Amino acid sequence: MKCLRKTIRYLLAEAMKDPRSLTDQFAIWTTYWDAEDLPGGTELDFVLYDIEKAKQILEQEVKNWNDDYPDEDIDDATEDIVNSAISDSIVAVLRARVPGRYGDCLGAWEVIRSAAEGGYGPTLYDLIMSISPKGLVSDRSSVSSSAKGVWQKYATSRQDVNKEYLDDEGIQVTADEEDDCALYGGRAADGIKSAMKKLFMNWLVNNYQDEYELGKAMDNGEWPELDPDEILDDIYHHMREEDYEDYDEIHEQMVDEWNDFKYENERNLYDEFPLESLEDDYGNSMQLNLAYNTDYAEDAFGDLQSNHSNFVWTHIEKFGLDPELFDQDGDGAQWAVRDFFQPRM
Q1: Which of 15, 105, 307, 340 could form a disulfide linkage to 99, CB 3.0–4.6 angstroms apart?
Q2: Residue 248 and residue 135: Cα distance in Å, rounded?
Q3: CA angle 278, 172, 220 (to 5 degrees)
């Protein structure tokens, strides 16, 4: 209930349409049906459209056909007429890619195209985030300024959306390879590295206060630039210099305990240590190096998907067209996404 109240406050503040309020008037046309066993790199298309507007256009298109071609079978025009009716009723589109090309990225789908009108963009993000098994990440190759703004709102205003750091496989801040993903920026891993450093320093002070004090007293101002493993090596060096009792055993124990603690807590890094700034020293957008997930709109997505099926089988037939000749799972949604997106790039 607390998260629901936060969501409603956000929706009101951002003039975003609550996905659960759309189910009487809107539908989703999509190439997605089941998240199980989707091969890496699979692209999924989502089209959010106004059913009532599509019905009106459909009726007019059928009338125009019958007026222009009274002696021809309208069934043959089913695909073109329905595609046109839906395409002219779209309020938002999104194309997502199943991870694999740029690493596992926590299993989150990559948003590679999105466009919307009238506040429906974040609405569609929430809907798809809710049915993706692990949520969404931004496009890993390029992100428009408007899309950066959407991700910024998720990073700063959406307490009801779970956020996790992504890790660069070439840096390996975390031990888990599931979060490996291509990152943005000249110092792309600064966010996750800073969080891991804070986790480490808290652990070190709480568990090895004496060793922390020794190392800190002898530090030459290098610790702010060192990672946890380097600090452990630095402490070991100082213990040996000071002929610290059992320094070999203590260092080995510290390393083992830190690695165990790190592995147990690295998935909760963002909850404990969120981004302090959304822009790094190079002006790169740090919100793009997070994965975002929620599931509150999963039922609404199912209803909107059913609405599309009902539109196809009820209203198309009502106007004398043949639903069997409309491939609702095929390439039509793909072209609708492309055609809606391109003028709005």
Answers
A1: 105
A2: 44
A3: 80
Asked if residue 339 lies in contact with residue 83, where contact means CB atoms within 8 angstroms, the answer is no
What 3-state class would DSSP assign to 22? coil
Rg of the chain in Å (alpha carbons): 26
What is the pTM assigned to this prediction?
A: 0.89
Residue type for position 162: N
Long-range contacts of 322-326 (CB under 8 A, 24+ apart): 322/75, 322/78, 323/78, 325/75, 325/76, 325/78, 325/79, 326/78, 326/79, 326/82
Between CA 145 and CA 152, with CA 146 as vertex, the angle to 5 degrees is: 90
Cβ–Cβ under 8 Å, residues 313 and 27: no
What residues does 292 pair with on adjacent strands? 136, 163
Does residue 284 surpass a pLDDT of 70?
yes
Residue 235 pLDDT > 70: yes
In sequence order, what are the beta bridge partners of 167? 180
Report d(CA 215, CA 225) in Å as an integer: 15
Q: Are 123 and 63 in contact (CB under 8 A)?
A: no
The pLDDT of residue 316 is: 83
Which regions of 138-273 does DSSP assign to beta strands (E)? 162-165
Burial of residue 206 (CB within 10 Å: 0-12, 13-18, 19+) is exposed
- Rounded to the nearest 10°, the torsion over CA 181, 187, 192, 198 is 160
* Pairing status of strand 26-30 against strand 43-50: antiparallel
Provide the edge-to-edge strand list for the sheet that holds 26-30.
Answer: 26-30, 43-50, 90-97, 109-116, 136-137, 290-293, 162-165
Name the E strands within the chain: 26-30, 43-50, 90-97, 109-116, 136-137, 162-165, 290-293
3-state secondary structure of 246: coil
Residue 312 contacts residue 235 (beta carbons within 8 Å): no
Contact between 278 and 148 under an 8 Å Cβ cutoff? The reply is no
Structure tokens at 162: 């779970």
